[in-house]
Structures are given as structure tokens and as C-alpha cells.
Amino acid sequence: MENKVYKHLELLIERYPVLSACKQSIIEAYEILERSYVNGGKLLVCGNGGSSADSGHIVGELMKGFKLGRRVSSSFAEKLKNVDEELGATIAENIQSGLPAIDLTAQAPLMTAFMNDCDPQLVFAQQVGGYGKPGDVYLGISTSGNSKNVLYAAVVAKACGLHIIGLTGEKESKMMNYADVCIRVPETETFMVQELHLPVYHCLCLMLESRFFEN
């Protein structure tokens, strides 16, 4: 792994030594995400409660600049200006390159329509079936690893040819049955698990940003 990418993981372990137990699974999760993005894939992410908030947080870090500016390429800037000189120049100066990611917990009209007509537990599964393409990545966040709606979505993701990453607590869980890699942070109480999830996904986002946008 390139040093510019790996440095973020080293800093994570330095700041949170307890997460050294997750080092290999974080590397494997990064490699899955990197490979998907290289091949034009996207990330689908969901969770409940605090993990829903984490889903949106992750998408925010990927879809715009996190630590880096991520200016669009000069060739794309020219294409924008060719469409409209004035508007294109403003767009090129201000928008940033993103890594495509969708927060499945944020689609309120779709979610409420589906839950009104169908089994609410399948609300994430419905979206994975609609958005997901082979080679995409599904990230299921569950402190227990046993959240039914997150697991239903994992089953659909696997059937659709998506790669699956689980982000859970320490205990063995059903998510491990479906995930290509499961990052199990070493805590069991919900709020303590969530406190360790944030630095883990920040690290992954930083690693991806360095890989695709540094230099």
C-alpha cells in the first residue's frame, strides 16, 4: 500500500491503540473500496439511529473534499465552459470531485412510501436492489451486527454481486455471514461501539481521498 495512504492508518492506531485489533480488517475494507472506485463503482451505506447519522457523515466525507481541495480536472473545466462560458467558469471554480456514495437512510419520500405499502424491515433492501450494480460496495453499520433491516439489505447486496463490508461491535454477529470483511471494533456497549466507528470510517475516507486526489 502506498505510504500516502497507509499513513492515515498508522495515525489512527497511534491515536486509538485499541483499534490495532482492527488494522487488518480496515486494510481489507479499504482495498475493497479502492478496487470498486477504480472500476467505476459506488458505495451504498446504511444503519439505524446513530449509525444512520454515521451513514450520512460518511457520504459527506466522500462526495466532497475532506482534507484536500479536490478541484475538478482542467479537461472537465473546459467542458463546463464549452457548455456556458460564464456559468461553467463559476462551476469549475467551486465544485469538487467526489467519490460516489449514497446514504440509504436519507431517502425519506421513498422510504416512507415503501414502509407504508410493504414490510418496513426491507426498506434498505429495496434500495440496494434498485441502486446496486455488480462491483459496487454495500457498507452495513450495526453496533450489534444483527439489525434485521441492515441484514436484509446485505442479502440483496450479495445476490446482486456487491462487495459487502460490515462495521460492527466486537461480538460475533450475523453480519459476519455475509460480509467480505467485518470491522469489529473492540467494544460491546452501543455508545462505546459508535465512539470507535467514527475514527474508523474517517480513516477509510482519508485513505481513499489520498489514493484518488492527493497530488
From TrEMBL:
Residues 33-215 form the SIS domain. Keywords: Isomerase. InterPro entries: GmhA/DiaA (IPR035461), SIS_dom (IPR001347), SIS_dom_sf (IPR046348), SIS_GmhA/DiaA_subfam (IPR050099). Pfam families: SIS_2. GO terms for molecular function: carbohydrate derivative binding; isomerase activity. The keyword ATP-binding does not apply. One of its GO terms (biological process) is carbohydrate derivative metabolic process. This is D-sedoheptulose 7-phosphate isomerase. It comes from Hoylesella shahii DSM 15611 = JCM 12083.
